[in-house]
Design a protein that fits this description.
Blueprint: H1 10-14, H2 21-32, E1 38-39, H3 51-62, H4 75-89, E2 98-101, H5 104-115, E3 121-126, H6 131-138, E4 142-147, H7 158-164, E5 169-175, H8 187-200, E6 203-207, H9 228-232, E7 234-239, E8 252-255, H10 258-269, H11 277-288, H12 292-312, E9 328-332, E10 340-341, E11 344-345, H13 349-360, E12 362-363, E13 365-366, E14 375-379, H14 384-399
Helix pairs in contact: 2-13, 3-11, 4-11, 5-6, 5-10, 7-8, 12-14
C-alpha cells in the first residue's frame, strides 16, 4: 500500500479559494451551453486597449524587443511611471523607487512578502477586495478587518483605525477608489488616517489602481501626496490595467522608499523576474502617450454609473448609493434575507446571487467575502444595453419570485 504523501505547507493550507468562484463557474457553464446570460462580475474594462498602445506592443515584437529586462522592470517604464504619477497626482518619485510587477495584484503581494514577518498584523479597511486577506495569510501575517457600513459610505474613520492598532501592527491596507464599493476617501479623511499611521509608525499599502477613474469632478488625493512623513511609509500601488483597458497585459508597479523597492526587486529576481518585455513597452506608451482615450472611457463609465444607479434605486426591495469612482455598484438586498424566493429561503447574499443567476440569468458578485454581507456587487464595465437587460431581468426576478 503506497505511503500517504506529506501535507502541504500550513501557510498554503489556510489560503482559501475565491468564494465568488461558484457563481462565476455557473455563469461560464451556462454561457458555454448557449444560455442567454448577462454578466456583471467583470473587474476589467470592456473597452479594447487603445490602438496606439497596441501598436507599441506590435512594434516591440517586430523590432525583436523580446529579451529579458532587469527584475525591477525597464528603466524607461519606471521613468514613465514617475512621470505619470507626478502629472496626475503630484506624486514625485525617482526611478529607483519604482518596481514593476505582473499586475497591481502581484505588486501588492510582493510588498506584503517584503514588509511582513510571521505574526505581524495587517489592518484592512473593509469592504475590501477579497484577495487582500488571502495575500496577507500567504505572507504569514494576520489580517485584521475594520468594517464600515453603508451609512458611512463604506469608509472607515481614523478613530476605527486607532482602535485596531496593536504592538503587532505592521501595515494598513487602503484602497481608494475602492473595489467593491467605488467610494473615494476625501483629503480630510486621508489626513486623519495618515496622522494615525505616522504616529504609530506603520506602513501603508495604498492601492491606487482605480485613481484615474473618479467622477463628478472629484479631485482625487493619494494618501502619499499629503506630506513627506506619510509618503515615507507608503507603498503606492498602481498600473495600467484599469485606466488603460490593459488587464491582460499584466503590468502593475509599486513606488516606495528605495530600500523597500530594492528588497522587492530582489524578491522578484528569485521568483517571477520582470513581466513580459512586450507588455512593458506597451505600458511605456500608455503612460507617456496621448491620454484622450482614457478620458473617453472615464466619461463612458460615469454615464453608465448614473444610469445604473438611477434605475436600480427605482426597483422595489433593493437600493444602492452612488459610487464616486472605479466601476462597481453595491446593491443592498438585505430586505430579501429570510424571505422565500422561488420556493427557497434566502439566507445570504450568496443565495440571492446564485438564484438570480439560475432564474434571472444574470451573474453578479455576492459580497459576504468582501466583508459586506447583504450586498451584491454589479460591475458597470459593460455595455449600456447589457446594463438595461440586467436591470430588466432584476425587476422580473423580484416581481415573479
Amino acid at each position: 500500500m503506497p505511503k500517504e504523501l506529506k501535507p502541504i505547507s500550513k501557510v498554503a493550507a489556510q489560503v482559501q479559494a475565491s468564494t465568488t468562484i461558484v457563481i462565476d463557474s455557473m455563469f461560464k457553464e451556462m454561457k458555454a451551453a448557449g444560455e442567454d446570460v448577462v454578466g456583471f462580475g467583470a473587474g476589467e474594462p470592456d473597452f479594447p486597449t487603445p490602438e496606439h498602445i497596441k501598436q507599441a506592443g506590435i512594434s516591440a515584437i517586430e523590432g525583436n524587443k523580446t529579451k529579458y529586462t532587469p527584475a525591477a522592470g525597464m528603466m524607461e517604464l519606471r521613468k514613465a511611471a514617475c512621470y505619470r504619477l507626478e502629472q496626475d497626482f503630484g506624486l514625485k518619485y525617482e526611478p529607483q523607487s519604482v518596481v514593476v510587477a505582473s499586475g497591481a495584484k502581484h505588486a501588492i503581494y510582493i510588498a506584503l512578502m517584503v514588509l511582513c514577518d510571521p505574526g505581524d498584523e495587517v489592518v484592512i479597511a473593509a469592504p475590501y477586495w477579497l484577495s487582500y486577506s488571502e495575500m496577507v495569510k500567504q505572507a504569514s501575517a494576520v489580517p485584521v478587518i475594520i468594517a464600515a457600513d453603508e451609512e458611512r459610505q463604506f469608509k472607515i474613520t481614523a478613530e476605527q483605525l486607532e482602535r485596531a492598532i496593536t504592538d503587532k501592527t505592521k501595515v494598513f491596507m487602503l484602497n481608494s477608489p475602492s473595489n467593491p464599493t467605488g467610494m473615494v476617501y476625501s483629503r480630510d479623511e486621508l489626513e486623519a488616517i495618515a496622522e494615525v499611521c505616522v504616529r504609530h509608525n506603520i506602513y501603508v499599502i495604498a492601492d491606487d489602481i482605480y485613481a484615474n477613474l473618479v467622477y463628478d469632478g472629484i479631485e482625487y488625493t493619494s494618501i502619499a501626496a499629503l506630506n513627506e512623513e506619510i509618503k515615507r511609509r507608503c507603498i503606492v500601488i498602481n498600473g495600467v490595467s484599469k485606466s488603460y483597458a490593459m488587464t491582460g497585459w499584466r503590468i502593475g508597479y509599486a513606488c516606495a522608499e528605495p530600500f523597500i523597492a530594492k528588497a522587492m526587486s530582489n524578491y522578484l529576481s528569485h521568483s517571477t523576474s520582470a513581466p513580459s518585455t512586450i507588455s512593458q513597452i506597451a505600458a511605456i506608451e500608455a503612460l507617456n502617450g496621448p491620454q484622450e482615450d482614457i478620458e473617453e472611457m472615464r466619461k463612458a463609465f460615469q454615464a453608465r454609473r448614473d444610469h445604473l444607479v438611477e434605475r436600480m434605486n427605482k426597483i422595489e426591495g433593493i437600493s444602492c448609493i452612488k459610487p464616486q469612482g472605479a466601476f462597481y455598484v453595491m446593491m443592498n438586498m438585505k430586505k430579501f434575507i429570510g424571505k422565500t424566493m422561488y420556493g427557497e429561503v434566502i439566507n445570504s447574499d450568496s443565495d440571492f446571487a446564485r438564484l438570480f443567476l439560475e432564474k434571472g440569468k444574470v451573474a453578479t458578485v455576492p459580497c459576504e467575502s468582501f466583508a459586506a454581507p447583504g450586498f451584491v456587487r454589479w460591475s458597470y464595465a459593460t455595455s449600456m444595453s447589457d446594463i438595461n437587460k440586467g436591470l430588466d431581468r432584476l425587476e422580473q426576478f423580484i416581481k415573479n419570485a
